[in-house]
Amino acid sequence: MGFWKSLFSSSDAPPAPQAMQMEDDPSKAAGDRPSPRIFFSTEREIDLYELEELCDAVGWSRRPLRKVKKAIQHSFLVVSMWEQHGSHRRLIGFSRATSDHAFNATIWDVVVHPEFQSKGLGKALMKQVIKKLRSEDISNITLFADPQVVDFYRNLGFMSDPEGIKGMFWYPD
Ligand SMILES: CC(C)(COP(=O)(O)OP(=O)(O)OC[C@H]1O[C@@H](n2cnc3c(N)ncnc32)[C@H](O)[C@@H]1OP(=O)(O)O)[C@@H](O)C(=O)NCCC(=O)NCCS
Prior knowledge:
The protein is of the alpha+beta class. It has one domain: Aminopeptidase, CATH 3.40.630. The chain is 29% helix and 23% strand. It is built from 6 helices and 5 strands, in the order ααβααβββαβα. It has helices spanning 2-7, 26-30, 48-57, 65-73, 121-135, 150-155; strands spanning 37-41, 77-85, 88-99, 104-112, 140-143. Strands 1-2-3-4-5 form a 5-stranded mixed sheet. Strand 2 and strand 3 form a beta hairpin. The structure holds coenzyme A. Coenzyme A (COA) is lined by residues 58, 110-112, 117-123, 145-146, 148-149, 151-152, 155.
């Protein structure tokens, strides 16, 4: 709770992560408040170097930025998470989803900066993604979980191999 108090300075009873509103332009909402605040955004104008830094921070392998740019452009949904302090904002979380725009969506690249992990923000980020996909009437939401985060997703309601269905992969030789 102390952490949330420090971030959500405008209220005596700071909102739980689930209650945070998605802001398309975090800078508008933050105004001149001196304390850091956290916002979500669905804007796709992400500084690719900043995103690369975020992915580096969790030890992911680097990917060609032109491909990352293309992947973001062609994603159905991009949700980023920002810490705003005065006029400075910092990318602290990211996720995106691809979709057939009707039935299915797959979530990719879920990441929270290590300095901000274990504070409920990954869960809040995922809830924003799911909420947005549900608002588009997408009912089949899938993802590929690294082994060490299976329980993180399970906590959010994701099931492994429902009805015995197996994810299958094909890789070039
Ligand atoms: C996985 C990740 C997004 C979780 O973000 P986070 O902000 O640390 O998670 P939260 O604090 O919101 O945790 C929410 C809940 O999940 C649990 N949880 C978090 N990480 C977990 C993990 N690796 N395994 C099992 N449970 C986990 C928390 O204990 C918490 O449980 P609670 O609701 O009962 O208190 C973050 O650790 C991360 O970015 N990891 C590196 C990148 C990565 O592995 N991404 C996933 C690729 S598939």
